[in-house]
Prior knowledge:
Layout: E1 2-8, E2 21-27, E3 34-42, E4 47-54, E5 60-68, E6 75-81, E7 89-96, E8 104-113, E9 118-120, E10 124-127, E11 143-144, E12 154-156, E13 158-159, E14 162-163, E15 171-173, E16 180-185, E17 190-194, H1 206-225, H2 239-246, E18 255-256, E19 262-264, E20 273-275, E21 278-279, E22 295-297, E23 301-304, E24 310-311, H3 312-315, H4 321-327, E25 341-352, E26 357-367, E27 370-381
Amino acid sequence: QGTSTITAYTYDKAGNKTSSVSKEIKIDTSNPNTATVSYVAHDTNSITVRTTAQDTVSGLAKVEYQYSTDGTSYTTKDTTNYTGTTAAATNNSYKYTGLKDGTKYWVRVKVTDMAGRTIEGTAITQMTDKAGLSYDKLKLGDYIEYSPAGASSSYSTTQDGAERSGYKNQSISRDTSLKWRIMTVSSSKTTLISETIPSGTLKLQGANGYNNGVKLLNDACNSLYKNTTLGATARNLNIDDVNSLMGYTPNVGSVYIPSNKYYPNIFKYEKTGYVNTSYGTLLGQSDQSSWYTGSYTASNLMGRMTYYTYKLSIYKERSTVQHALATGQPNSIGSTSHTTYWLASRCVDYGANTEEEWLNFRVFHVASGGVDANWLTYWRQC
Length: 382
């Protein structure tokens, strides 16, 4: 493989030689080097990409811009012809036009070199916008058609070789009956909330329930309800979501210094928890990306109280869509019935009086039409 030069001469019977004639021959037994696309933009009926193509041996012959609606059968939209250039055709912009709105497309380039050898590049996926639908026309509570894709049908509380809820192994199944509504919308992101509370239960208990509740809730939601085709991730509702819906701003909690120094492991990483010599720096109330296990006793322990409770109807009337979304009762706005569900947020409750002192480690929930929190592990001294 490579480039060779063949030189020819002609001799007559007298031995006279003509001038030489040379011809360069390229032998190419390998496929083109590069055939890539990257996303630039899209709208209701077009997708714009940048492409790179190269063949360093015989050079480029043509680049075909292809698309598919199923990821299997491709149609060539346009072709750019070349005459054997071996330089990279880099960052060429191409716009796929005449596409159908609200449709998922696979787009790629097919590169052919001068030897006739081809390579089909890896496709990227993009969905065109739905005609007549733009983020500035969407509003809180609007229904959106959404279905999980690439998601699991069940999630176990035993993860990475250990049970994480503090109770026992539990399996949560996907609720296939859910409908979805807009909770927040902007030009860059739309956040959906399920119309009702998903079926099934999750019990959190003890130090490990507090240690891992946030991650379990978020991981379960993402596993069951993500859509890998759209690049959509899922998580559990947290205290900030509900406070935002209600227009509620919690007060900054007071600092406590308990006489007992018991704490669940994750507490020392929380920004409101002071263990031994310093406050934690890693985790807010709704943050967690790793598993934590067990409980410990500190030489020095204090923190800022983060527990609070309030009735939702004090801040948003039962007739509002915000109240309906926060209670999971959108089909009966104004209903006095209530649902109970976990929020993926931790909090700490400290108190003392003339008879006793206590420190409760809790996870927030919505129940009986209000925000509150279940204590999972605690100490109490009378």
